[in-house]
Structure to design on (337 residues):
């Protein structure tokens, strides 16, 4: 059991949870709680000052927020999400603050969203919707189909013609592979960038990263955001892709170079792209070149980092995060990162 018998828990984004998230303490532990619907950056330091436990989804907890001056009593952070890039883990390690997450909680919803984005990009759904609503179809008639061709005057592939390259073969990557095979796609699993040989472990064969870029007609990015994956896909990688390629990013912003992606779309060196994430979030035309006015006619589908948003994910969060807190209070922390 935790050596401290009194804990104060602060939930920074209680408004996300439906039904409300609930935490209980084991016998012998006094747990006081504050649940804030949301916390703005200017409120953060004051509201977490007394916390020994912080429960957060995406609140940015940087080195200042995690300093002894701001959070002198902090012992544990329960990230109610899969990714933990919102937390300065180096500062946590230095101070001995434990951090947990909710692994695999969103696998179903994120993998489903990846496939939805694939179809949107491959079928050019956003542009099709736009030409209908803007009156272009009414004006041009059937010849509006010519707007949907790729740079080689191709009409787009069907799923059984696709080769999907999966970059990042964790829980989401594995589920995406399963769904892709169900659609008749050939699946390639990418090795680490810079490794030039095909490797096999058990029944999992990893194809060299550069070969996956060249051979795939669909690329799905599902890696965590760490220093090694920043700008993993940039100008050189886009140049290696075929004109048939659609790029799907359901990982984190910053892994795909947004300026390089925009250039590839404008030059039609790839067929299209779809992203659920941006380098700076919430994103706008002021923070991302992908949202500038001149991108409206590109085959680019976006969503506001809500690939995780589903009933099953919420149920998992409402189970896993309280369990992580309870186990920390018992002195047996779970799902530590």
């Amino acid at each position: 059991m935790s050596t401290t018998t009194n804990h104060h828990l602060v939930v920074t984004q209680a408004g996300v949870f439906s039904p409300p998230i609930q935490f209980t303490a084991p016998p012998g532990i006094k747990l006081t709680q504050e649940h804030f619907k949301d916390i703005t950056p200017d409120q953060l330091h004051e509201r977490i000052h007394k916390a020994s436990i912080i429960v957060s989804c995406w609140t940015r907890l940087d080195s200042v927020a995690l300093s002894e001056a701001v959070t002198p009593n902090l012992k544990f952070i329960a990230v109610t999400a899969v990714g933990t890039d919102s937390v300065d883990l180096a500062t946590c390690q230095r101070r001995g603050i434990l951090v947990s997450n909710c692994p695999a909680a969103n696998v179903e919803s994120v993998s489903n969203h990846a496939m939805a984005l694939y179809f949107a990009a491959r079928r050019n759904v956003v542009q099709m919707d736009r030409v209908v609503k803007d009156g272009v179809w009414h004006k041009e008639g059937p010849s509006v189909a010519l707007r949907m061709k790729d740079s080689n005057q191709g009409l787009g592939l069907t799923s059984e013609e696709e080769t999907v390259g999966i970059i990042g073969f964790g829980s989401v990557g594995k589920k995406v592979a399963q769904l892709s095979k169900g659609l008749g796609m050939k699946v390639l699993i990418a090795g680490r960038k810079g490794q030039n040989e095909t490797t096999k472990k058990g029944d999992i064969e990893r194809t060299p990263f550069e070969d996956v870029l060249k051979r795939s007609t669909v690329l799905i990015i599902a890696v965590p955001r760490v220093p090694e994956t920043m700008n993993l896909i940039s100008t050189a990688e886009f140049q290696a892709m075929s004109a048939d390629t659609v790029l799907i990013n359901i990982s984190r912003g910053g892994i795909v170079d947004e300026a390089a992606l925009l250039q590839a779309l404008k030059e039609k060196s790839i067929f299209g792209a779809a992203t659920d994430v941006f380098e700076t979030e919430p994103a706008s035309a002021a923070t991302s070149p992908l949202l500038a006015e001149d991108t409206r006619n590109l085959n680019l589908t976006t969503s506001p980092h809500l690939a995780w948003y589903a009933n099953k994910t919420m149920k998992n969060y409402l189970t896993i995060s309280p369990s992580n807190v309870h186990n920390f209070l018992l002195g047996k922390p779970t799902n530590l990162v």
